[in-house]
Amino acid sequence: MPTLFITPTLAIDAHEIEMTGIRSQGAGGQNVNKVASAVHLRFDVRASSLPEAVKTRLLALHDQRLTEDGVLVLKAQEFRSLEKNREAALARLADIIRTAMVPRKQRRATQPTLAARQRRHETKVRRSRLKTLRRKPE
């Protein structure tokens, strides 16, 4: 397996990615129980050669495919051939890493405008009046 290029400047060596052929789920013919056409891809984020900032963002993802040990596990079984499933798993890994490379936009705290506060107050007053009309007369 060759080197996986994430961006023109970032690549992952082949020895960092562990791929295993497994049997695919779902219905199939007589061949389904003999052929391992699905792929399990395991990528250890902590032990990888990725930049520290990308590693931190990857590990901070709340993703069910990320284990507690920091291993990203992907399963590809869309295609019938093992080779196409390998390519699909590598493409998904590259997409996940690319999304983790983009830093999140910093949120700036803002306050509601005076007009927005007045509108909110008016709706509260209107709602309160409506509810008092529903009460039983005293």
Task: Briefly say what this structure is.
The protein has 138 residues and is of the alpha+beta class.
Describe this structure in words.
- By secondary structure, the protein is α+β, with helices and mostly antiparallel strands.
- 36% of the residues lie in helices and 17% in strands.
- It has three helices and five strands.
- Strands 3-4-5 form a three-stranded antiparallel sheet, with helices on one face. It has a two-stranded antiparallel ribbon with strand order 1-2.
- Strand 1 and strand 2 (11-12) form a beta hairpin.
- The longest helix has 21 residues, at 114-134.
- It starts with a strand and ends with a helix.
- 13% of the residues are buried.
- The mean pLDDT is 87.
Number-wise, the strands total 5
How would you sum up the global shape?
elongated
Largest sheet: 3 strands, antiparallel
Oligomer: single chain
SSE pattern: EEEEHEHH
Poorly predicted residue ranges: none
Number of helices: 3
Q: Compute the CA-based radius of gyration.
A: 26 Å
Mean pLDDT across all amino acids: 87
Which structural class best describes the helix and strand composition? alpha+beta
- Helical content, roughly? 25-40%
Main sheet strand line-up: 3-4-5
% residues in beta strands: 15-25%
Report the span from N to C terminus. 83 Å
Give structural attributes.
single chain; 138 residues; alpha+beta; two-stranded antiparallel ribbon; 3 helices; elongated
Please render the helix and strand layout as text.
Elements: E1 4-5, E2 11-12, E3 17-22, E4 38-44, H1 52-60, E5 71-76, H2 82-101, H3 114-134
Antiparallel strand pairs: 1-2, 3-4, 4-5
Helix pairs in contact: 1-2
